Structures are given as C-alpha cells and as structure tokens.
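Sequence, please.
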C-alpha cells in the first residue's frame, strides 16, 4: 500500500546520506500527520549520532514527490502527511486491494463441545473467535479446513446411558419404543453427573457402559450412535444461530482407531516409560525441571515451574483426552497434510497443549516443518467481574444467553418503533454478542454487559450495522454516479485513513490471533464516517463533482464495513 511508498522514499533518502538502513512507517494518531516514522531513535543509537539531527538530514534529502509532505517533530519523529494526490491514490488502493492465494493450508479446530450436554457460554467464545479466525485466514488467501471436533467418545454419553438404565428406560430407547430427543439427554445428564459424585457404584457402571461403546460392544455401540446423532443435530442448530459452520463435524471417536498406532510409535522410539502403572512421555525441556533445594534429605524433590510428563495411557489401559488429541493430529496429517494446525480452547488448557505439541514433535507425529498453534481465550464474566453464572451458580446455557440478548434487542427495536421480524432480531443480537466478544484481546477476561452491548450507539455491533444501513439508505436514493477519489475535506480524509487502518488490522489480527484490531479499526471507521455524515450534505449537494466524491466515499465505506463484518461473521441487514 501507499505506506510502503513512504518507507521507500525515506530509505532512499537515507542511502543518499550514506545510511544503509530500513526506515519503517506506521499509522499516526497525531492530529497533524497521517503516518510517522520512529526509526531515527534506534538507527541514531547504532550510528552514535543525535536522533533529531538524523531525522532532519533524512527529511532534507527527501526527493520531490506528489504523495507526501515530510516534517520533523521532537524528539526525533518524522511526520508524514498525505497530499491530495496521495489521498486519492490511497482511496483507489483500498478499492482494489486483494490478497494472493497462499500455498499454506491451515487446519483450524474450534467449538469442541462435549456431546450429551447443553452447550454453554464457553462454547460461545470458541465459536465466535474460531469462526472469525477461519474467515480471516480465508480472506488473507490461505486454504482453510475447519473442524468442530466434538467430545463424543468419553464418559458424558456413558453417564446418560447409566441414568436411563437406572430409570429403567434404556432398553426402550435402544429398541425405539421410546423416542430419543435432546430433551431426554438434557434431563438425564445433569442428574447422572451429580449422582456419580455421590454413588460410586453408579459411577463404575457409567465407566463400564462407556467402555462398552468404546469397545463397540452391542447394543451399546449402536445406541451411542443414536445419542451422537441427536446431539450433533442440536449442536448444528446452535451453531447456525451464531452463523458458525464447519467443513468437518468430527469428534474424538474419529481418532479412536489411531490410538493404538500412536502409542506404539512412542514405544518404538523409546519415548514412553511406565510410571505407577501408567504410560507417560517426558516433555520437559532443559531449564524447566530445575530442582529446588531440599530442607531435609527425606523431603520429596520439588521443582521450579515443572512441566509434568504427559500421560498417554491409564494404568487400566483406558484412553485419555491427550492421547485422543495426539491421535487426531496423526490422522489429520495422514488425511489432510496441513501446514498449520490451530487449536482454540479455554486458556486453562494451555499447558496440556504445550505437552501434546512437544510429544508430537518428539515422536515425529507432527512433521518438523508443521506449525502447531494453540490460542487460549479468557472467560466471559458478569458485571461483578466473576464468571457469568446462573442465579444458582451453574453455567449459563448458550441458548439461554442467546435468548437473553435477543429479548433485549427486541425491547430496543420496539422502543425505536422499528418494524422487525425474527431474522432481523437474530442478526442484531448476533452482532451484539460477536462484537462484544471479538473486540477484546482474545486471552483476556471481559465483562458481558447486555445493556451496553445491545446499544445502537457507541462501540457495539448494532452501531456498526446501523452505520452500514444508513449508507445503504442513501445509496438506494441515488441512481448513478461517477466514481471520483479526489477526496478533499478533513472529514473525508479521516474516513479514508480509517479504511486503510482497517485493512492493516487484518494482518495484525493474523499475527496476534485476535480480532480486536479489526473491531477497533471498524469502530473508528464507523465513528469517522458519522462525523463526515453530520458535517457534509450529500444528497442535497449541488456541485456534481463534489457529490460524486461524497458518494464514492459512501460506496467505499460500505464495502469496507461489509467486508470486515463478513470476517467477524456479522450480517449487515438492509434496514434497521
């Protein structure tokens, strides 16, 4: 983009001064310039010279150009201001910006609900962030494969079977005499989960039933298929409500057949050892297992920041989540050969993924050139700063949260006298949920304030949608106009710069694996557009040339807002 032109001019000027260094340019928040260069500080230190004097030398030697005006500000900033020609070129660049297709294939794993249980707000964060990252990767030209990867092979479904058996209805559900639906499962699981903590015999029976379907013993394996089918159907409905979709709807069960293979790989390479009957892999690296001094010879040896070994098989031969994850990486490489596998989960799983990734690299299950990423997200909290809970202290169901936000949106639409249907209510509620979630740095906790996030004003999803709808309304009143990028007023310039910052925000989001940079830039664009809209007449503009310029700016702004919303999985309605 045009920013690179400024970098080339400064670097060329430096060379004419005998300085062979790269001068980088960034967007500026200062009122009197659009970009700035801060490189003189570090380069002057390296050259043992005065940074301010260096900046003056560089600017004095800048060759004549029609894109920028350069100046120096203390202590040693080079300020860069766009000329009219530069502003026009920037607008044209924004319109034509595209991303080349890349060779790299990114496999992204997000969502990850356990089947048999209602999805909760933790799954909302995973769906929102994962869906946006998937769309971002596609926008930037990467080949992407997405997988929700269900927890479908563990004890939750065994607990449901055990509870139905205890209630003497399991055989009837197995035979089809009773109709199995999600309500049956949602009622059975909480009761079973509570009972297993109180009744050890019940817990053992649930473990046995889990082992039965894992060993594909009939009729339990066929009934597991029924439970999975009903759960997956419900999960797809919930994902659709949040405009999240996946290429694959796989789960732990798909990795099960590969577990024996990966365990044998660790054994063959002498990477596994027995510990108290279990099979473990040491994944600590040098410097992590630092022994702390003992106070007495009999004291148990403790370590500073120890990285514990990874357990890959229980003492009873049972499967573990970690082993399933390793087997999943094995079969994904076998079937898809991705360059990157990106996992998105709660931040509390960070250590587990560090262990898994190291084990996969040590064993060669993940090739040396393959990148393994884990992004851990923070919790969504209530106004009290504590994790969002129901009144009785339980996890808030995801459907319950969506209903709460939709009800608040409906209330606001009625207050505004807006005609609406369910779909309009849904997509406005989605924008409130997603923008609130994604505008925060991904690993940080944040407070979910329904009143604040559903507002049609301020830094919210509905405000972004409303801005786009306002632009659509104006453009719908215009027949045709000639595109003209000769932007000239300060308000118009601010909008164009905001669009450039938004486009730069995609690269930042990729590097940080967080959409906050996109959300912040999108809000700034909407805010600067509103300032322009309130300052200048558009439809009533009598000067045809000026009117074309303003309408061009509207068209460009709408294009960039809709493009960013597409990345965030936020739909823009026709009217609000």
């Amino acid at each position: 983009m045009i920013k690179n032109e400024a970098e080339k001019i400064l670097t060329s000027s430096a060379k004419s001064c005998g300085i062979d260094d790269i001068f980088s340019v960034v967007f500026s928040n200062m009122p009197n310039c659009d970009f700035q260069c801060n490189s003189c500080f570090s380069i002057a230190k390296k050259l043992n010279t005065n940074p301010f004097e260096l900046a003056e030398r560089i600017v004095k030697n800048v060759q004549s150009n029609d894109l920028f005006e350069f100046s120096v500000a203390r202590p040693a900033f080079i300020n860069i201001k766009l000329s009219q020609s530069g502003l026009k070129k920037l607008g044209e660049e924004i319109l034509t910006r595209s991303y080349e297709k890349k060779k790299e294939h990114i496999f992204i794993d997000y969502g990850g609900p356990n089947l048999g249980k209602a999805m909760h707000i933790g799954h909302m964060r995973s769906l929102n962030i994962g869906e946006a990252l998937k769309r971002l990767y596609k926008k930037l030209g990467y080949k992407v494969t997405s997988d929700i990867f269900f927890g479908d092979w563990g004890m939750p479904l065994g607990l449901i079977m055990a509870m139905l058996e205890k209630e003497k209805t399991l055989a009837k559900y197995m035979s089809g005499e009773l109709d199995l639906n999600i309500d049956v499962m949602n009622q059975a699981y909480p009761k079973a989960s509570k009972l297993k903590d109180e009744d050890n015999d019940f817990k053992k029976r649930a473990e046995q039933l889990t082992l039965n379907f894992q060993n594909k013993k009939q009729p339990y394996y066929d009934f597991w298929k029924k439970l999975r089918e009903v759960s997956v159907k419900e999960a797809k409905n919930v994902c659709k409500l949040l405009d999240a979709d996946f290429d694959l709807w796989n789960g732990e069960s798909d990795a099960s057949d590969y577990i024996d293979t990966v365990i044998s790989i660790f054994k063959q390479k002498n990477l596994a050892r027995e510990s108290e009957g279990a099979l473990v892999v040491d994944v600590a690296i040098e410097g992590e297992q630092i022994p702390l001094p003992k106070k007495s010879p009999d004291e148990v040896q403790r370590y500073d920041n120890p990285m514990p070994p990874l357990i890959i098989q229980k003492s009873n031969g049972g499967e573990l989540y970690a082993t399933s994850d390793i087997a999943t990486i094995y079969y994904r490489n076998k079937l898809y050969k991705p360059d990157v596998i990106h996992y998105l989960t709660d931040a509390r799983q960070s250590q587990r993924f560090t262990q898994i990734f190291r084990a996969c690299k040590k064993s060669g299950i993940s090739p040396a050139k393959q990148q393994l990423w884990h992004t851990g997200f923070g919790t969504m909290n209530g106004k009290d700063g504590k994790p969002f809970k129901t009144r009785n202290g339980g996890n808030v169901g995801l459907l319950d949260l969506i209903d709460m936000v939709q009800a608040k949106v409906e209330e606001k639409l009625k207050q505004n006298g807006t005609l609406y249907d369910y779909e309009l209510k849904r997509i406005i509620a989605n924008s409130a949920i997603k923008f609130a979630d994604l505008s925060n740095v991904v690993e940080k906790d944040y407070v979910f304030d329904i009143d604040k996030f559903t507002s049609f004003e301020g830094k919210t999803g509905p405000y972004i949608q409303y801005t786009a709808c306002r632009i659509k309304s104006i453009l719908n009143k215009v027949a045709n106009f000639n595109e003209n990028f000769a932007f000239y007023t300060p308000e118009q310039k601010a909008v164009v710069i905001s669009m450039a910052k938004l486009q730069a925000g995609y690269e930042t989001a990729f590097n940080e694996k967080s959409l906050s940079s996109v959300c912040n830039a999108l809000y700034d664009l909407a805010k600067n557009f509103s300032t322009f809209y309130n300052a200048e007449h558009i439809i009533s503009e009598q000067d045809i040339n000026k009117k074309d310029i303003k309408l061009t700016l509207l068209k460009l702004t709408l294009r960039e807002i809709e493009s960013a919303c597409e990345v965030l999985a936020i739909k823009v309605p026709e009217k609000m």
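The chain has a mean pLDDT of 93.
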